[in-house]
Design brief:
Blueprint: E1 2-10, E2 20-32, E3 35-43, E4 48-52, E5 59-61, E6 64-72, E7 75-87, E8 98-105, E9 128-132
Antiparallel strand pairs: 1-2, 2-7, 3-6, 3-8, 4-7, 5-6, 8-9
The protein binds calcium ion (3 copies).
One calcium ion (CA) binds at residues 3-5, 110, 112-113, 126-127.
Length: 156
Amino acid sequence: MSDLSLTKLISNATPNAGDVVTFTIQISNLGPDAATGVEVKDYVPAGFGTITAISDGGTLSGSTVTWTGMSVPVGANTVTRTFQATVIAPTGAPDEYKNTTEVTDSDQYDPDSQPNNMAGNTPAQDDEAFAKAIVQQADLCCPNRSARSTRTSAKP
Ligand SMILES: [Ca+2]
Ligand SMILES: [Ca+2]
Ligand SMILES: [Ca+2]
């Protein structure tokens, strides 16, 4: 039995369009046994392109990054996987920068989560996780907006 869980990190949560960000997936195992045959999938959303530098022999199919056959020793963050992607300009689509990950297979029973059962784009179990970016946009509308602010309290 192995209680697997995931943590997901993004190197810059407030990037600009065109920036390259690194996603890091940390796999923990609360045990009691080491886990084998562990597969993790990362579902890269439409707001990120040019997926590169996939660590540890992970493979890319469409916009899904997959690592298979991993062994996860007991402990916190005992396995780490990373890849890079380029931030695409915002379109306003919901969750276009919400990058989810889940454990999709393991040889051992997990007492509090099941592999490959994430509902839609919403992590709910501890073997599912997400990282999200808020992409910076220049406000070209009103360059003098702040200078026009009125302050009635400062009147003599
Ligand atoms: Ca757990
Ligand atoms: Ca678990
Ligand atoms: Ca699950």
